[in-house]
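Q: I'm building a small set of examples for a reading group on sequence design. Run inverse folding on the following structure and report the sequence directly after it, with nothing in between.
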């Protein structure tokens, strides 16, 4: 069918009976190419870690080319799905946790302290600096700061495993950063982005509690009660979470498609810079205080990889999904690609003590 469509389109173009812009094919071809690459990578042991990133790129391309299908369905506004989908993701995160994960704070106090301090200083300050340097409009700039002020996500745990880093420390840092987000993220946004957009600190705290803490706690309870089914949950919920993340990205991309088309490239540059500096400064912060190599790798990944889903949910709750949420759309796919590359490179490097 695709081949027939391309062939018939070419005939119309050549006949001259109807004007045809061949660039109209670029969107569908790009979507199919990204899907094809993702499927190929999923079957490759060496590149399987990159397949989700290319599926996200396919989703973004689809939403950019056909935004109408992801903005409104009949009288229902699709953006209303963002918060429930985020809650599903955070519930999935909660089911991966156990009380043993919280003991990590006691077992690795230095690593947790350094990691959390880096998480809520390096990325927020970088976000503010990059947003100011590039001169973005206020709401777009605030979105970059929001990404920086969000905690790390589950992707960092996977990358820590691939990078031969300290997975236990990674899980503990993600947990602690997530649980402290209701306090830290609103305060950082008020301090760094309060001059750009109005920030309701208390309202944001309540939103994060609703979107993150309650689903995580519910997931933790489910994990404790249904231990016998933990293997099934571990197999199914990550796939559900990935589907939810992808759909959230499509909704935000569609809502902000005009802004993305006008400043998408510069947002990509800003995201790459933000992410790379997060890795670099996170790693060398650990080295500066004398931490082991595997712990430094962990902190680098925890600092550089942010929870874009939470940033999207906050943008939705603030009613600014088409502007404040755009940075998350760009940062999310790039973060997964860069994290996979960095983790794969580190995997080939031996751990050399300190």
């Amino acid at each position: 069918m695709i081949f027939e469509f391309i062939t018939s389109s070419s005939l119309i173009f050549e006949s001259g009976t109807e004007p045809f812009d061949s660039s109209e094919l670029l969107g569908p071809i790009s979507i199919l190419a990204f899907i094809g690459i993702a499927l190929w990578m999923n079957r490759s042991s060496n590149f399987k870690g990159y397949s989700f990133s290319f599926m996200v790129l396919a989703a973004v391309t689809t939403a950019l080319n056909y935004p109408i299908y992801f903005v409104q369905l009949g009288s229902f506004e699709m953006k209303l799905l963002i918060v429930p989908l985020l809650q599903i993701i955070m519930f999935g995160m909660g089911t991966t946790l156990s009380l043993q994960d919280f003991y990590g704070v006691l077992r690795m106090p230095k690593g947790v302290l350094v990691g959390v301090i880096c998480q809520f200083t390096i990325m927020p300050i970088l976000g503010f600096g990059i947003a100011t340097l590039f001169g973005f409009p206020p709401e777009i700039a605030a979105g970059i700061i929001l990404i920086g002020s969000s905690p790390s996500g589950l992707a960092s745990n996977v990358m820590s495993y691939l990078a031969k880093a300290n997975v236990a420390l990674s899980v503990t840092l993600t947990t602690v950063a997530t649980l402290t987000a209701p306090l830290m993220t609103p305060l950082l946004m008020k301090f760094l982005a309060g001059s750009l957009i109005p920030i309701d600190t208390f309202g944001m705290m309540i939103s994060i509690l609703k979107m993150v803490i309650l689903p995580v706690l519910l997931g933790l309870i489910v994990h404790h009660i249904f231990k016998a089914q933990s293997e099934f949950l571990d197999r199914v919920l990550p796939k559900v979470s990935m589907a939810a993340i992808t759909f959230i990205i499509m909704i935000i991309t569609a809502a902000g498609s005009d802004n993305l088309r006008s400043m998408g490239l510069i947002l990509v540059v800003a995201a790459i810079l933000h992410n790379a500096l997060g890795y670099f400064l996170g790693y060398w912060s650990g080295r500066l205080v004398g931490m082991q190599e595997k712990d430094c790798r962990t902190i680098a990944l925890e600092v550089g990889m942010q929870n874009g889903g939470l940033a999207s949910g906050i943008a939705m709750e603030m009613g600014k999904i088409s502007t404040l949420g755009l940075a998350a759309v760009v940062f999310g796919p790039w973060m997964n690609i860069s994290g996979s590359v960095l983790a794969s490179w580190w995997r080939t490097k031996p751990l050399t003590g300190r």
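The CA atoms of residues 36 and 54 lie 9 Å apart.
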